[in-house]
Amino acid sequence: MSLGNSNEEALREALLNVQRMREKELVAHQQTETLINGLQILNESSSVSDIYSKILGTLQKVIPFECAAILVATSDGNLSTAVCTDNRLKFSRVPVTGIFKRCLDGNSTVVNNMSRVEEWPTNDATSIEELTSALLVCLPGTEQSTLIVCAGIDKCKLRKKDLNLLTTFTPLATQAVKRAGEIEKLNMLVSKLDYYAHYDMLTGLPNRTLFDIRLDQELHRSNENFAVLFLDLDNFKHTNDTYGHDTGDILLSEIAFRITGVLDRNDTIARMGGDEFAVIIRGAKDRIALSELCSRITSRVSHPLFLSKNCIQPSVSIGVVASAQDINSAQAIMQNADIALYDAKNNGRDCFSVFSLEMKNRISRLNEIEKRLKTALEREEFRLAYQPICSSTSLSCLMVEVLVRWKIDDVIQFHPDEFIPISEQTGDICDIGKWIFKQALVDLFDWLKTDSRRTVAINISDNQLQDSDLSKQLSSIANDAGIEPGQIELELSERIVASEINDTVSENLRVLQQHGFGFSFDDFGTGQSSFLNLQKFPGTTLKIDKTFIDELEHSDNQKKLIKGIVNFAHSLDLQVVAEGVETEQQLQVLQNISCDYIQGYLLAKPMTLNEFLNDYDQIGNRHTHVDDMRKAG
């Protein structure tokens, strides 16, 4: 070979080497750019599963594999495919042995003949061309042991340089996986906090916050009719106190389940706190449909619940706001629902009430009464009135009933039928009753002392009888006032006579009777009381309610009934007072059947103390028809 040819060959080989070097540099540059771009894509991902898929997508651009997968350690210690490019690498419960263990220990591996790897798993993808070679690399430092597997059908296609490239990429992939894992944890925490903020942990229902949001959304829907229910479990505190808070929690969860079962899927039920629930009823529903729905709810809730050998009989009261879309604020809707719920509670519970403006005005008045009651005694707003009780034969007055009136600036502000029940609910009746008893004895001291046959009748509430100190209080007040207990008759309500009395009430009655106080049974016949109940009480007088007297002159059956009551009372050594006597005919009938005493507008209306002291001894001489008495009053 000549020198010239030799030089040409050398030059050509040098140029080829330069070209090959440039090609390698270009490939390396392209691979680097691909990996850098892939890393940017990875850093934009927020979930681990998304990261896994993008890792394989990035590697596919720089490594000539047929398919690839990422395998992750499971809780049972095996490996399972998290993502894969096709089903040939879709595995579950791969034991961590052989090359898998070596790889997880940090030894990246090239497999040129899979048939020689006994621990290589198989799957059902038999129709796909068989894989023969693979690269296995561990992602170090991840929370779960993780492998990248790249596989091919050509034994020589995946080489050491590809493994080196894959190994170089794994630290970047690991950082991206760890970052996505932290973001996932943060997102899960945010989701959990959001759930806690909007849902009740006990029942799983939306809470007050989410209910308010949905109610506000309903208000902003155009032309959408909806109603709101406000529900409260009856006597839930008693259940908690009797059976414990764990039982109370079970009851709340069961009630939530029962109410939900009655509602449509589009309705919203929420636990507002404690034993209160609220419901948004979507769609047009008239009053009849709403009433039927509420009836189904109360019926479903009232089914007995058996817990720990105890039978609990739950019930619920419901306040209803129909056509809630016509109200301009969520707050106003809930206020109206609360008013309706209050009305349902006052109507005996285990029922529902539909809000109305008349109801709102009535409840507002009751709320005003409750508020003013707290300071009424301190402000000296109560006054006493006295209504004579006269002998049916001589019409002389030897007995007087004490009545309470609530006046502000000498104007009757609230009727007893309004404020007495509220004072019983709030407990204020105990202080009011004590004041009435003390003031009446002071007012009537001279009248009572003038004739030992004279008696004052003073009402004692059920609440007062539950006070274990009542007998001591009344005896002490009577002693301080200088009045003999025998001249004081305590009027017991019909509820006490009709119900089972507890030890406290029984002891109070026993001690008071021992001290010489008399007892009268007020409003007899208006409720559940019977003659059998009367035998349990140490009474001296029976008062027949006005409702029995009203038709006395027009009904022979009514006359027979009253005569039977009078005769039976006399057989128990009880004197009988007829309340609400308003006509001469009624008086004559009562005189003919030997009723002992008469009380009513026919003889005298309730009077101030001065009016009573000036007029009580003139009643028999000038009793007047009720209409004239009312005009005079």
Description:
The protein has 23 helices and 21 strands. The strands form four sheets. The chain has an eight-stranded mixed β-barrel. A five-stranded antiparallel beta sheet has the order 2-1-5-4-3, with helices on both faces.
Describe the SSE topology:
Blueprint lengths: L2 H41 L4 H13 L6 E7 L5 E6 L13 H7 L4 E3 L21 E6 L7 E7 L7 H39 L9 H12 L6 E8 L2 H8 L1 H18 L5 E6 L2 E7 L4 H15 L3 E3 L2 E3 L3 E6 L8 H17 L5 E3 L2 H20 L5 E10 L5 E12 L2 E4 L1 H11 L2 H15 L1 H6 L4 E6 L1 H4 L4 H12 L6 E5 L1 H5 L4 H13 L2 E7 L6 H4 L6 E4 L1 H4 L6 H16 L3 E4 L5 H9 L4 E2 L10 H7 L10 H7 L1
Parallel strand pairs: 11-12, 14-16, 16-17, 17-18, 18-19, 19-20, 20-21
Antiparallel strand pairs: 1-2, 1-5, 3-4, 4-5, 6-8, 6-11, 7-8, 9-10, 13-14, 13-21, 14-15
Helix pairs in contact: 1-2, 1-4, 2-4, 6-7, 7-8, 10-11, 12-15, 15-17
Question: What's the Cα radius of gyration?
Answer: 45 Å
Strands of the biggest beta sheet: in what spatial order? Answer: 13-14-16-17-18-19-20-21
Number of helices: 23
Envelope shape: rod-shaped
Short structural summary:
It is rod-shaped, with a radius of gyration of 45 Å.
Observed structural traits:
23 helices; alpha/beta; five-stranded antiparallel beta sheet; 633 residues; single chain
